[in-house]
Amino acid sequence: QVQLVESGGGLVQTGGSLRLSCTLSGSIFSINLLGWYRQAPGKQRELVAGITNGGNTNYADSVKGRFTISRDNAKNTVYLQMNSLKPEDTAVYYCNANKLIMGLAYAYWGQGTQVTVSS
Questions:
Q1: Which of 2, 13, 68, 95 could join 81 in a cystine, given CB atoms 3.0 to 4.6 angstroms apart?
Q2: What pLDDT, in 10s, does the model give residues 36-85?
Q3: Rounded Cα distance, 114 and 89, in Å
Q4: From start to end of 1-119, where are the E strands?
Q5: Cβ atoms of residues 53 and 97 within 8 Å
């Protein structure tokens, strides 16, 4: 089993910054893909940013240039640095980890952390 615990959410003003952290524990071997998703009220959960073991990253168009995903393998932690925050960034942010083993995918999710950006 893999457990993911997010932290770092909160209330900030437009233009502010937050750094989300997600710490993985348990059976974390063969974690190949890490990502951050978010879900705003009335909207579908969407991928915000993803990162591979090789360090390749991918971002939603809405956050490119403002958000940065990174990993610290020694700490089993993935981060999402969020700058120039906008009210439309308000959502619950979820950490996601995926194991890709023998053609099978195993997905794990954190409990979510609320990010609220005030006007």
A1: 68
A2: 999 999 999 999 999 998 899 999 999 999 999 999 989 999 999 999 99
A3: 10
A4: 2-7, 10-13, 18-26, 31-39, 46-52, 57-59, 67-72, 77-82, 91-101, 104-109, 113-118
A5: no
How many CA atoms lie less than 13 Å away from 40 in the CB half-sphere?
Answer: 9
* Site of tokens 């168009």: 61
Amino acid occupying residue 32? N
pLDDT of residue 103: 87
**Could you tell me if 90 and 42 are in contact, meaning their C-beta atoms sit under 8 angstroms apart?**
no
What tokens were used for 61? 């168009």
Q: Mind listing the pLDDT tens digit for each residue in 74-95?
A: 999 999 999 999 999 999 999 9
Q: Given the DSSP bridges, would you call strands 91-101 and 113-118 parallel, antiparallel or unpaired?
A: antiparallel
* Token pair 């940065």: residue: 68
Work out the burial of residue 104: count CB atoms within 10 Å of its CB; fewer than 13 is exposed, 13-18 middle, 19 or more buried. exposed
